[in-house]
Write a structure and sequence with these properties.
The protein has eight helices and five strands. The protein has a five-stranded mixed sheet with strand order 1-2-5-4-3, with helices on both faces. The radius of gyration is 16 Å and the shape is globular.
């Protein structure tokens, strides 16, 4: 089990993580999503968030219509609520966005277990890379993000990874061993 599997670590994290914890628990966001195995992914959990970073929640659904109904009934009253369907990595995907307090929330649902989804896998890899590197590396990732570069491309740039940064990052530790 990873520390990221629950929200508990946020309560003792940096100020942004603590505020995230407070908002997610006060508004019972994860309580509404329990049937869909929610996990907070992205930059806030691994402490590389920038000013406009959102709360990315990955979910696993087995019945897309039930997921859409739950998300809509639980969150449609929040500011700027939208929900849409698309295909990402050849998987049907439901995306919901809205604002709670000062946070933008994105709920990302697929018929793929959360721990097999790209967002979760990237987060674990990025956390491990950050742990292996110094504060300067972390600060450079944050600087690149502040300059408009997405997270995975920022890591790929600093690690000199070639090709699609999203795929290259998944192979990083395999490449490192060879």
């Amino acid at each position: 089990m990873s520390k990221f599997d629950t929200l508990d670590y946020l309560a003792f994290g940096n100020p942004l993580q603590q505020k995230s914890y407070e908002v997610l628990t006060r508004f019972a966001v994860f309580d509404a999503l329990i049937p869909f195995s929610p996990i907070l992914v992205g930059t806030i959990p691994i402490d590389i968030a920038i000013e406009n970073s959102d709360l990315d929640i990955a979910c696993f659904w087995t019945n897309k219509n039930d997921f859409i109904k739950t998300v809509t009934s639980s969150f449609s009253h929040h500011l700027n609520f939208t929900i849409s369907e698309t295909i990402i990595n050849q998987n049907e995907t439901v995306l919901a966005n809205f604002f709670i307090d000062r946070f933008e929330v994105e709920i990302f649902g697929q018929n793929v277990p959360v721990k097999e989804q790209m967002g979760y896998r990237h987060m674990l890899i990025e956390a491990k890379i950050l742990k292996e590197n110094d504060e300067n590396f972390k600060n450079e990732i944050i600087r690149l993000k502040q300059n408009g570069i997405k997270t995975e491309p920022a890591f790929a740039r600093l690690l000199n990874l070639k090709g699609d940064p999203y795929l290259a990052l998944l192979d990083y530790f395999k490449l490192k061993k060879s």
